[in-house]
TrEMBL record:
Pfam families: BPD_transp_1, OppC_N. InterPro entries: BP-dependent_transpt_permease (IPR050366), MetI-like (IPR000515), MetI-like_sf (IPR035906), OppC_N (IPR025966). It comes from Methylobacterium planeticum. Keywords: Cell membrane, Membrane, Transmembrane, Transmembrane helix, Transport. The keyword Transport applies. CDD domains: TM_PBP2 (cd06261). This is ABC transporter permease. It is found in: Cell membrane.
Length: 328
């Protein structure tokens, strides 16, 4: 009768002090898949659904030139005989206008896709401007303190007394009064981006300032000073990476606010012209026909705006909770 012998017991022992093979470094994506953030995302069905809706709307928006049945910016493709047609499933609906047409004969589906793209571009650029300005001022105020901190924070306190939409309206109105009718479409978009950027920088500045005031007294900052690194290098290379967590949360939520602000400006008639349809201009156009029975002109742009903002806000709420160490 044979007895089994453990093969590991027959293996020659390793020499004492033999170096172990170094573990291969993992890529950034592999580290992310093993992080607590990814585990939190997998546990949240609501965040997964919000991300799916956000990615879908972004994909539809930026692929609009290839999938939209019509270019609503091209007057040559518009025919007034096709104006105010109901959706395809209605009795008077006509192909290829799946969601109907507006008063100018524009396909509502195409207008929503192009308008969604324009609103997203303005929102993303507005967040970039406000984030850059707020992070820079917050870094400077928190790192140097003193009179610099006092001036930046007093300006922020004054701006907080006014609603963001009011700041955007003032900036937009002053610029249009100064330049008059000399603003073309690109200049108008740039003006709206700057208006949004100047309306939302305060949240970034206050948050970054608070985090920098904690970080500037730590050993790694003192060591960087001792080896002779300049203040801008210390702030950008060493301090900034340690305060980016709250910034991502603010940027996500402010993206939704920036899109709403652009839609509000366009709805009030101070944003984009009707020849460049964003979600706000489409809602403004459809609002004039709501009580005459052409509900689809305002319903579908409004639903696209509500769905996009809701999905982004849900992502922002999840990211805020996932990055909060008190909830881990």
């Amino acid at each position: 009768m044979s007895t089994s012998v453990d093969e590991a017991a027959l293996a020659p022992p390793l020499p004492t002090g033999a170096p172990l093979a170094p573990e291969a470094p993992r890529s950034g994506f592999a580290r992310f898949l093993g992080s607590d953030l990814w585990a939190s995302f997998q546990r949240s069905k609501l965040a997964m659904g919000a991300l799916a809706v956000t990615v879908l709307l972004f994909g539809l928006a930026f692929s609009a030139p290839w999938i939209a049945p019509q270019n609503p910016y091209d007057p040559a493709q518009l025919e007034l005989i096709n104006s105010n047609l109901p959706p395809l499933w209605a009795a008077d609906g006509q192909a290829p206008f799946v969601l109907g047409t507006d008063d100018q004969g524009r396909d509502v589906l195409s207008a929503v896709l192009y308008g969604l793209r324009l609103s997203l571009i303005i929102g993303l650029l507005g967040v970039a401007v406000s984030g850059t300005l707020g992070i820079a001022l917050g870094l400077v105020a928190g790192y140097f303190g003193g009179i610099v901190d006092a001036v930046v924070m007093r300006v922020a306190d004054v701006q907080l007394t006014f609603p963001a939409i009011l700041i955007a309206l003032v900036v937009d109105g002053v610029a249009k009064a100064a330049f008059g009718g000399a603003l073309d479409t690109n200049a108008t978009i740039l003006l709206i981006v700057v208006s949004i950027g100047l309306s939302f920088w305060v949240q970034y500045a206050r948050t970054v300032r608070s985090s920098v005031m904690v970080e500037r007294g730590k050993d790694y900052v003192q060591a960087a000073r001792l080896i002779g690194l300049s203040s801008p290098v210390i702030m950008v290379r060493h301090v900034l990476p340690n305060v980016t967590g709250p910034v991502f949360v603010i940027a996500t939520i402010n993206l939704a606010l920036a899109i709403i602000t652009e839609a509000t400006l366009s709805f009030l008639g101070t944003g984009l012209p009707e020849t460049m349809p964003s979600l706000g201009t489409l809602i403004r156009t459809g609002n004039r026909f709501l009580f005459s029975g052409e509900w689809w002109i305002v319903a579908f742009p409004g639903a696209a705006l509500a769905g996009l903002v809701l999905a982004i806000n849900l992502l922002g709420d999840w990211l805020r909770d996932a990055l909060n160490p008190k909830l881990q």
